Amino acid sequence: MVKAANSRGTTPGSSPRTRILIVGGGYVGMYTALRLQQKLKAELARGEVEMAVVTPEPYMTYQPFLPEAAAGAISPRHVVVPLRRVLGKCRILIGEVRSVDHAKRTATVATLATEEEGAGGVQLGYDELVIAPGSISRTLPVPGLALYGIGFKSVEEAIGLRNHVLEQMDIASSTREPALRDAALTFVFVGGGFAGVEALGELEDMARYATRYYHNIKPEDLKWVLVEATSRILPEVGEEMGTYAVRELRRRNIDVRLDTRLDSCENRVAVLSDGTRLPTRTVVWTAGVKPAPVLASTDLPLNERGRLKCTPRLTVEGVEHAWAAGDAAAVPDVTSKVPGAETAPNAQHAVRQTKVLAENVVASLRGQPLKEYAHAYVGSVASLGLHKGVAHVYGRKLKGYPAWLMHRVYHLSRMPTFNRKARILAEWTLSGLFKREIVSLGSLEHPRAEFELAAGAVPSRPLTRRHEDPPNGAKGRRQSRTGEDPGEG
After folding, report:
1. Taking the model in full, what pTM does it have?
2. Which part of the chain is the FAD/NAD(P)-binding domain (predicted)?
3. For the packed helices 239-251 and 194-210, what is the interaxial angle rounded to 10 degrees?
4. If one looks up domain 145-287+378-433 in CATH, what number appears?
5. Concatenated DSSP letters of 403-424
6. How far apart are CA 382 and CA 386, in angstroms?
7. Which range has highest mean pLDDT (256-270, 391-405, 406-420)?
8. Could you confirm whether domain 2-136+290-365 is CATH 3.50.50.60?
C-alpha cells in the first residue's frame, strides 16, 4: 500500500483507504473486480481497500451467446450474470459515467436516482481507475438506419429481434397483400463479422423450423440477405474458412452480397450499392463497433480510433493509477512482428487481459513489479447455425459439426460462474430432446398496454403491436429500465 499512499501525499503506515473505481460491468469490468476481490480479500476485510463498479446494467452479458439466445436455444436469463451476486465485496452503482477528471481523481456519474431527482451527476472520488466501458455499435449516416435499423449488442436487442422475426412471419401468414408479405419475409443483415453471420445463421435456422407450423409459409418463401462491404466474411477464421462459410450460407439459399454496402433503408426499402432495391421490414445492423463515448469525456490519452492508449502492462500511457483493457483499450501486441500492432478487441484477449490487469493493480498497490500482457492470437471459431460452423485454431481448420461443437465447448468454458455453465448445458441437453420454442413474446416490451386499455386510458402503445414501428432502441430500453436484475434471485 506504500506506493498508493505516497502518490496521494499521505503518510506511509497511516493505513489509508484505497478507493478503486471500475468503469463498466462487462466481461473485463466484472472479471477484474472478481479477481481483485480474491487477491485483496484481506485488505477488503480490514477496510484498507474499497471497490466500486459503475455500470449501466446490473448484469454482465456474455455476447457470444446472444445468437443462440435470439434463436431460443438458450434462455436470455442464462446469458447474463448478476453482478450483485458475484461481486459481493463491491459497491455496485447502476448508472453511467459521464466524465472523468483523472487529474483530480474524480468521476461524474449519473444514476437512476439522479435522473429521478432531476439532480446533476454524483461526484465519485477514487485512487485507482480501471476503465473498461466496452463498445457500442459503429453506425454510418445511412438514411433511414436510425428509424428502421435493429442492433445486436445486448440481450434486449437479441430477444427483440427474435420476437420481430416471428411477428413478421405472422404478418406474412395473415396478409392478403403480396408486397407486404414479401417485405415481411425479407431479412437483411449488414455486416459479415461474427455478430452478423452468427445471428443470421441462428435466426435462419429458427425461422426455417418455424415454417412447419404455418400453413401458408414455406422455407423457400423466406429471403435472407447478408451485406458485407469487403470481399470476405469472418476474416478472423482465415480466407479458406471464410470462403467455406460463404458457400455454406449460399447453399442454404442465403443471399451473400460481398463488396456491397447499404446506401439507404428509408421507407422500408433497403437500397444496396450495387443498385438492388429490397423492400424489407427487417434491417439488422452489425457492421462493427466503436469505443464507448465516455472515453471522449476524459482527460486520458486516446488514439486516432478513440481507444485509450495503453502500455503492455495495461496502464494508460503516460498516466499513473489508470488502467484499461478490452474493447476500449489499444494494447500493444508484444507478440506481433508488425511494428505498432495492437491486440484485437475481442473476447479472446479480454479474457486474458483481465487476469494480468488485476494482478498488476494488486502489484502496484503493494509496490511490486508489473507484468506485461503477451498473448499470441490462436484463431477463432464461429457458428453458422445448428450443427454448422467454421474454425481456424492453432493452425487447424475445421468446418461443419466439429467446428460447431468446438464453438459451443469453448464459449461454455468461458461463460462466467458454474451456475450459468450448468444452466446452459442443461438447456442444450433439453433442446436435443424436445422441439424448438417458436413463441413470440413481443408484448413483454409493453406490458402495461392491456391494463391501460382496461382502465380507460389511451395505451401508450396499442395492445396489438404496431408493426410499422421498429423495435425499441437503446434509448427506449434505458428509459424503461428499472434496474431489476434479470437473473434468478
Report:
1. 0.84
2. 19-348
3. 20
4. 3.50.50.100
5. HHHHHHHHHHHHSSSHHHHHHH
6. 11
7. 256-270
8. yes
